TrEMBL record, chain B:
Transmembrane segments: none
NCBIfam families: MoCo_extend_TAT
4Fe-4S ferredoxin-type domain mapped to chain residues: 783-813, 870-901, 902-931
Native species: Zobellia barbeyronii
Name under which the protein is recorded: TAT-variant-translocated molybdopterin oxidoreductase
Length: 470, 1052
């Protein structure tokens, strides 16, 4: 236990160090902050201009739509399959109305019909409807019969002139700049203090040396003889020590014990890879997925509920979302580059390459390349561990063993995964019996036997060798 | 003072002029040390620039580098699916119902797969026939991962493409269309409706197709007799559960007789219920499983069996026939006849004699008796081979009448007695294509070798018994570039259908009659509605009717004669006049472990000890003790604990098989010898697996009974036999047994005595004395295992199931010989030394003094020798999971400990290999890993290659060198059942608790469960009067208990 405390301490130190490590990046951070301050105002200006333009355009058009409402509707209903400037499951929708009227001669009425009942329009034999249907892999667009014409107007207004997303970006930048600025300021002051202290120490040392030198010179000048060899008969300390055999023996014993202690400590950490944080083939951020986006752990690691392994998600699980999410928000991208030196968009491209997703044509090519993740939690073969026992039956949070995964940009091993660590938890954790008919009888009987209210896993037999080793 | 004594090691040294002594004196090493072998060429060694110092430097650097490199932990990669299949969850097993139909073994089974890999065979409890897997079927999953499998088609021994093969076959078939030459198909028995239809399609396309079905071990006589009588080529079915008296003439129906699979029904009738159990009389030459389980076993040579059968027939219908038999055999037959007369419909007669007359007579007797166990209405289709057709085909081939020969599922070059003729014939065939899993004797002579699928990669269907259908579905995609025969036929017919579609079509059109295909596929089995009625419900009234008619037996016999194709009188006549043909009578049989030899490359089966002789890695000729003494054969135990045996040469009709090792077999009929098929394969096999001798050359005219001569050959054979002590030595408390009469009439304290021990000079029951304080085990699960010695036939399916489930390593012949076998579960086989075990007990109890007539000195010596026709008992022994385990108290590192659930745990990672536990175990069930058995070229079995390792159970450790291992009572399975229940929030159902052995046991002998669950089967069994613990007087309080064996010795 002593050891693990040390480990934790070391870890703390390690964790503290991180913010101070890249002072250069802090300086860059400040620069960025200053730059961003300007950029906010620039984009705000643009934003205003665009808004004006939009209102003008709306005014000029026959029916006015509200681009802000349209945006909300778009994100809610359309964004799963459509983007403004990019082909997805469905076509890109920026200026769709203008495009249709110019290229195909179709008016807004056609769009109303299409959006409210596209299969109907296809069935009616409309030539362009059929063409679009054929072009997009014969995947019919979900009809939206509940949309009013006004809703559609709003959406079209948004597609014609989307309101810039600069405002939230600015806010985000503000926040980011604020934090980075604060930390940068902290860093500078600390360094200055340290530097000043070092300077003071150096000055003191220098002064002492000078004073000493001066005093000696004065003494010499005054004819005072310094009693350098005042006690010639006294043995040097180390010789006296060497002659005292008892002391030597005691010291040797202590030294041996001490080194044994440290040697033991060192050896006990062999194979304990707490904090193991390998570089993965795809930079996957649990912080973004589990933290920012609050995706439930078991959405991806679904087999943790039923199987002994938690399962590294198959790439098709990634594609459930990333089929639509082809890039991260600009500020996230910036943050990634700034904080972690990672271009998240490139990482998504790596996923596409691995799963064989052709972004251009929105199709699977069938040429996949399985991802070779580096395994972080390596339990030895002779230890049997079952996730579902802990996750489904005991209802333990993933974080209890895996740590604050939602804060981890790069996943690392949080727990030591030693037997002592397992056993300790089994000793302390009470069985979760509520609503589990399996435990009803055995729990009442056992708790009566042990005279306790709640049984621990250990009392249920969770310390028996064969429960984990077979 | 200097001594003048001269010390000498050898008399020759006394002669100062002996030149040899002089030379030896000068030469320290008598044999030259093979320095060149390990140092390489001496010249290049001296020419090298590396001197000794450099060498030391290199050693130093490399050691340093190695230790540096070792500092870094290995990087483990984890590769998930790109697209995860919907029904696969990593870490969760899936089960698929399928069927094995390899021409020898037919069984409906479940396959357990993990992450898409088949890893274990389980019984299909939904199946009405053949739902339990024998040892070979249990092991068949390992044959899927055989590293010697063919990985693609071959042409004249060179790898080729399927397209080339297809083109060649299509061209040849096209050219043969309408020509005078045959297109011959030489195949195994499929018993498959879809394959029959497919071959029908082929015949429709090419009129000159000749389909010849060939069984390596033929049941031609039985099938022909049935065909002559009932007009269909099949085998009558028997339900031994309904039989009250079973009389067998050389039929090993607990083995592979007529396709096997009869042990489940037999065992049900053997467990005494309401004071009744079936009685089994066996007349046989070799000691077979059936004979070992019989209540009365009469050793008779095949010739004598024929006479006995004829006499029994005559006795039953009141006539008399000639034929000489010894007096007591005569008496036995009289008794049997009398018993049959008492309960005609309850009796059933079976025979394994390869003689159409014997088979005809048996069918006639069963019909005459109206036997309830006899089912001729819905026969079995598992052996359809036709000997005449095979011989005709070979002669046609030799005559050049065969244009193309397609072979599937058989290995005629190995299994044909006249393989040379076949070879000659093949050379004259225009195109020969052999479908095979492995490179073998037949692929060697064929032009094209088509790499065939394993059955776990194939689609298909079977009709094992009339109206009982089952489906074969793949449980894994083809591992290699292989194709099943039916798919190839479809391709050659130009069909674009897959065989799956073809099977489905057959089923929906003609089998399912509107029932759901998906359900049939899910269940793996399907009973045609009409058929189940006919076979079960209708059977009884029919039989009662015939039983009434039987009162006038003579009339019935005449009717039978009228029905039968072969006149019964002729048959009887020929049986009575049977002759031995001089010399000894050889009975060829199939061994429980190897069958016909299809899976000879399967290390599990090679290491599987024969249930009777307990010899692994060999076949041998079995000889009676009297004959052995006459001919000078010996079996002896040598210093390293191994068994050695003489060699014999056996000659049949001029064909000699040389150097067959000899086992002296108690119970072998004098004047008869036995030899098993399936061994002696060489081509395409790993050297370790090339064991035994090939018996097929002696299988002349496909008759398993041959007149042979046997003579001693020089040399001694080293056996790998795992049980050298054959008898129980009168220790009746190890296997307790009694007779049905005593069982029914006396209190259990008499026939199931609790052993007494002395406490304070008072005799008290052993169970009342305890060295330890017991824990309270009344709460939670407490696992117990029940083994019913009445139901256990010794078949050994559990041994292989345990191997597969628990990753038990294969150690090889040499190690087994050194008693280092690793089986967690062994089935001990004991012979009685007197005529019965009871006789042994009495003899031992009556020992009086050291010497004299009843002296223990000579008496114990005598008890070591089994009787000429001993009683046999089987006893499965695995870790007994003692509540007061002697092993636990002696472990210096506490690596083995007890759980509250009754299991004795073994923590391999804690074990340091002192082996104290093994020494202190009274049951000798702990196994020590003397070597690293995986990834070790010295043990080149399945754990030494990536393919073979796919069969490993991922839930169980693979043990390393230097640790003890033993039965864990399948804790991985009990833990899983508990976890499933916890996850669902319910109690565990009784049937969910299973071990590998209990779920593999087709006879219900092994029952496992929670004794604290008062509803469970095992908690009922533990209360039984027949329950006893092994070595109860030791006081270990085991969690495995046995049931007293009851023998039905009540004679009429």
């Amino acid at each position: 236990m002593k050891l693990s405390c040390q480990d934790v301490d070391r870890n703390k130190i390690h964790m503290k160090k991180v913010p101070y490590r890249h002072s250069i990046s802090k300086v860059l951070g400040v620069t960025l902050f200053v730059f961003l301050l300007f950029s906010v105002s620039i984009s705000a200006q643009e934003d205003g201009a665009a808004d004006e333009a939009a209102t003008e355009a709306a005014g000029a058009g026959d029916t006015a739509g509200d681009p802000a409402k349209g945006k909300a509707l778009f994100n809610q209903n359309c964004a799963a399959c459509h983007a403004l400037n990019r082909k997805m499951t469905g076509p890109a929708l920026a200026n769709v109305e203008t495009r249709l009227s110019e290229d195909e001669g179709l008016d807004r009425e056609w769009l109303y019909k299409w959006i409210k009942n596209s299969p109907g329009l296809i069935a009616s034999g409309d030539s362009y409807a059929k063409k679009v249907y054929a072009e997009y892999n014969q995947a019919a667009m979900t009809p939206f019969p509940t949309f009013s014409n006004e809703d559609i107007d709003n959406i079209l207004a948004y597609t014609a002139a989307p309101p810039k997303t600069a405002a939230p970006a600015a806010a985000g930048a503000d926040a980011a700049a604020g934090t980075s600025g604060a930390s940068a300021a902290g860093g500078i002051s600390n360094e200055i203090i340290l530097g000043a202290l070092a300077l003071v120490f150096a000055l003191l040392v220098g002064m002492l040396f000078l004073v000493n030198k001066t005093l000696r010179r004065i003494a010499e000048a005054n004819g005072v003889v310094l009693e350098d060899d005042a006690s010639p008969k006294r043995l040097p300390l180390w010789k006296a020590f060497a002659k005292n055999q008892f002391l030597v023996l005691v010291t040797v014993v202590f030294l041996l014990l001490g080194s044994a202690y440290f040697a033991y400590g060192w050896m006990m950490q062999v194979g304990v890879d707490q904090g193991y944080q390998p570089i993965q083939p795809i930079h996957y951020s649990h912080r973004i997925h589990a933290g920012d986006n609050k995706i439930e752990c078991k959405y991806c690691h679904s087999s943790a509920r039923v199987s002994k392994t938690s399962g590294i998600p198959a790439l098709n699980v990634c594609m459930n979302c990333h089929k639509s999410i082809y890039q991260v928000a600009d500020e996230t991208l910036e943050e990634g580059k700034r904080e972690y030196g990672v271009d998240y968009n490139k990482e998504i491209k790596k996923l596409y390459a691995a799963v064989g997703w052709d972004e251009e044509n929105q199709k699977y090519t069938g040429e996949s390349q399985p991802v070779e993740w580096v395994r972080i939690h390596n339990l030895p073969d002779f230890a049997y561990f079952n996730h579902s026992q802990h996750v489904s039956v005991a209802g333990i949070e993933c974080q209890q063993c895996h740590g604050p995964v939602e804060e981890m940009e790069i996943m690392y091993q949080f727990a030591p995964l030693t037997m002592g660590w397992c056993i300790n938890c089994h000793r302390e954790t009470e069985i979760k019996v509520e609503g589990n008919a399996y435990y009803d009888k055995i729990h009442t009987e056992l708790s009566k036997k042990y005279g306790v209210e709640k049984l621990t896993a250990a009392q249920m037999g969770g310390l028996e060798c064969g429960k984990c080793h077979y | 003072m200097a001594s003048n004594k001269k010390y000498w090691k050898n008399e020759a040294e006394l002669n100062p002029n002996d030149s040899i002594v002089e030379t030896l004196k000068q030469n320290e090493f008598v044999e030259p040390i093979p320095v060149d072998d390990f140092l390489g060429d001496k010249e290049s060694l001296s020419a090298t620039s590396t001197n000794r110092r450099d060498f030391l430097k290199y050693v130093g650097f490399s050691t340093a580098a190695a230790s540096l490199a070792a500092c870094e932990g290995p990087v483990h990669k984890s590769i998930p699916y790109v697209v995860q299949p919907e029904n696969i969850i990593p870490g969760v097993a899936n089960f698929y119902a399928t069927t094995i139909a390899n021409g020898f073994d037919f069984a409906s089974i479940l396959i357990k797969t993990r992450e898409g890999r088949p890893i274990k065979v389980e019984n299909n409890k939904d199946a009405k026939v053949a739902g339990s897997a024998n040892a070979r079927v249990q092991a068949s999953v390992l044959s899927l991962y055989d590293s010697t499998r063919l990985q693609g088609p071959m042409a004249n021994g060179e790898p080729t493409e399927w397209s080339v093969l297809d083109a060649a076959v299509k061209a040849k078939l096209g050219s043969l269309k309408g020509s005078g030459q045959q297109i011959a198909l030489l195949t195994q028995t499929y018993a498959s409706p879809s394959t029959d239809r497919l071959i029908g399609d082929l015949k429709a396309e090419y009129s000159n197709v000749n389909h010849v079905v060939y069984d390596a071990i033929s049941e031609d006589a039985a099938a022909s007799a049935y065909e002559a009588k009932y007009g269909e080529r099949a085998l009558a079915d028997y339900d031994f559960e309904k039989a009250e008296l079973i009389v067998s003439f050389g039929a090993d129906f607990l083995g592979d007789w007529q396709g096997g699979g009869y042990d489940g029904g037999y065992a049900k009738g053997r467990v005494p219920k309401n004071g009744k159990m079936s009685r089994h009389v066996q007349f046989e030459a070799n000691m077979s499983l059936s004979g070992a389980n019989a209540d009365k076993r009469v050793p008779l040579t095949p010739m004598q069996q024929k006479i006995a059968l004829a006499q029994l027939y005559a006795k039953l219908n009141g006539t008399s026939v000639g034929g000489e038999l010894s007096e007591n055999v005569q008496k036995t037959i009289d008794d049997v006849a009398a018993e049959i007369r008492k309960n005609k419909s309850g009796a059933v007669i079976v025979t394994g004699l390869d003689d159409i007359n014997a088979q005809t007579v048996v069918l006639a007797i069963n019909e005459m008796l109206g036997s309830k166990a006899f089912d001729a209405a819905s026969p079995r289709y598992v052996r359809q081979g036709n000997v005449k057709a095979v011989q005709k085909l070979i002669s046609d081939m030799k005559a050049g009448k065969v244009g193309a020969l397609l072979v599937d599922g058989v290995n005629p070059m190995y299994t044909l007695p006249n393989a040379a003729d076949f070879k000659e014939g093949v050379e004259k065939v225009g195109l020969s294509v052999v479908f095979s899993n492995n490179w073998n004797e037949t692929t060697e002579v064929a032009q094209y070798t088509a790499s065939a699928n394993h059955f776990l990669e194939s689609w298909g269907d079977t009709q094992i018994k009339k109206g009982q259908y089952s489906l074969v579905q793949p449980t894994i995609k083809e591992l290699f570039d292989t194709r099943q025969f039916q798919t190839a036929l479809l391709t050659w017919l130009g069909s674009d259908k897959s065989y799956y579609e073809y099977v489905k079509e057959t089923w929906t059109q003609s089998i399912l009659v509107g029932n759901d295909w998906n359900k049939a596929l899910h269940d793996g089995v399907y009973s045609a509605a009409g058929m189940t009625l006919a076979s079960s419900a209708d059977a009884d009234p029919e039989n009662t009717v015939s039983a009434e008619v039987d009162k006038e037996a003579v009339d019935v016999v005449e009717e039978v004669v009228a029905q039968s194709g072969i006149p019964i009188a002729t048959a009887i006549n020929s049986l009575v006049n049977a002759t031995s043909g001089g010399g000894v009578e050889l009975t060829l049989y199939s061994k429980t472990g190897m069958g016909a030899g299809q899976q000879a490359n399967n290390p599990w089966l090679q290491e599987f000890p024969d249930p009777i002789t307990r010899v692994s890695w060999d076949n041998y000729v079995t000889v009676s003790k009297a004959d052995a003494e006459r001919l000078g054969f010996v079996n002896e135990h040598v210093a390293n604990g191994g068994l050695d045996g003489s060699y014999a040469n056996v000659t049949v009709n001029g064909v000699v098989v040389n150097n067959i090792p000899v086992i002296i077999q108690p119970g072998q009929a004098i004047g008869s010898i036995g030899l098993s098929f399936g061994y002696g394969r060489k081509v395409g096999m790993k050297t370790e697996m090339q064991t035994g001798v090939n018996a097929y050359p002696l299988y002349q005219d496909f008759n398993s009974v041959q007149a042979a001569t046997i003579e001693k050959a020089s040399g001694m054979h080293e056996f790998a036999c795992i049980q050298l002590h054959k008898t129980l030595m009168g220790r009746g408390d190890i296997i307790k047994e009694t007779t049905l009469e005593i069982f029914n009439t006396k209190d259990h304290s008499e026939w199931n005595e609790v052993p007494m021990v002395s406490l304070d000079h008072q005799e008290v029951p052993a169970t009342s004395v305890d060295l330890w304080d017991s824990f309270d085990r009344t709460i939670g699960h407490h696992f117990n295992m029940s083994i019913d010695l009445n139901a256990c036939t010794g078949c050994g399916a559990c041994v292989i199931a345990c191997h597969a489930e628990n990753n038990v390593p294969v150690v090889g012949k040499e190690e087994v010989r050194k008693s280092r076998d690793m089986h967690w579960l062994r089935i001990d086989r004991y012979y009685s030394s007197e005529d019965t075990f009871e006789g042994d007990n009495i003899k031992k109890d009556e020992f009086d003094g050291l010497t004299g007539d009843k002296g223990s000195l000579s008496g114990f010596g005598e008890l070591e020798h089994p009787a000429a026709n001993p009683q046999v008992a089987f006893q499965p022994v695995m870790c007994q999971h003692c509540n007061h385990a002697p092993c636990e108290t002696v472990c210096p590192v506490a690596a083995t400990s007890h759980s509250r659930q009754g299991q004795n745990h073994m923590a391999y990672n804690r074990c340091v290999g002192t082996r104290y536990c093994a020494n202190n175990c009274p049951y000798k069930v702990r196994r020590f890993n003397w070597f690293l058995y995986n990834n070790n070229d010295e043990f080149d079995y399945h754990m030494n290659n990536d393919l073979g390792k796919m069969v490993l159970n991922p839930d169980v450790n693979v043990r390393s060198r230097g640790v003890i291992e033993k039965c864990s009572m399948c804790i991985q399975k009990t833990q899983k059942s508990i976890l499933d229940a916890k996850r669902d929030g319910r109690l565990v159902k009784d049937e969910e608790f299973q071990t590998a052995c209990s779920s593999a046991c087709g006879t219900g002998a092994i029952v496992f469960g929670d004794v604290n669950d008062k509803e469970s089967e095992v908690s009922e069994l533990v209360e039984s009067n027949r329950m006893y613990h092994l070595l109860e007087h030791v006081g270990t309080k085991p969690n495995v208990f046995y049931h007293v064996k009851v023998r039905n010795t009540i004679e009429a």
